[in-house]
Design a protein that fits this description.
Length: 85
């Protein structure tokens, strides 16, 4: 049977605020659990705030649209407006 691990603090979300809070609590000797539903660090360092992440995400979407016909989806021509990316 799995053992229950006691924590003194639980931080919901590992975005900038949650990560900093957990870091400081753990640094003061407290036992901390961080619960994150998607990306460690939040969405900013993973897909939102860095220009390179925007370019990578846009390329993934464009590639999916390019191959949409393989999945029975009919699209027109696909173009990427880099000024908006």
């Amino acid at each position: 049977m799995p053992q229950v691990e006691p924590y003194e603090d639980v931080v919901l979300g590992s975005g900038a605020g949650g990560k900093l809070l957990a870091w400081h609590l753990a640094g003061s000797g407290r036992r901390v659990a961080v619960i994150e539903r998607r990306w460690i660090g939040g969405s900013c360092p993973n897909i939102n705030c860095l220009p390179s992440k925007n370019e990578i995400w846009s390329a993934k979407v464009a590639d999916l649209l390019h191959h949409a016909a393989q999945f029975g989806i009919v699209t027109g021509s696909v173009a990427v407006d880099m000024a908006k990316v």
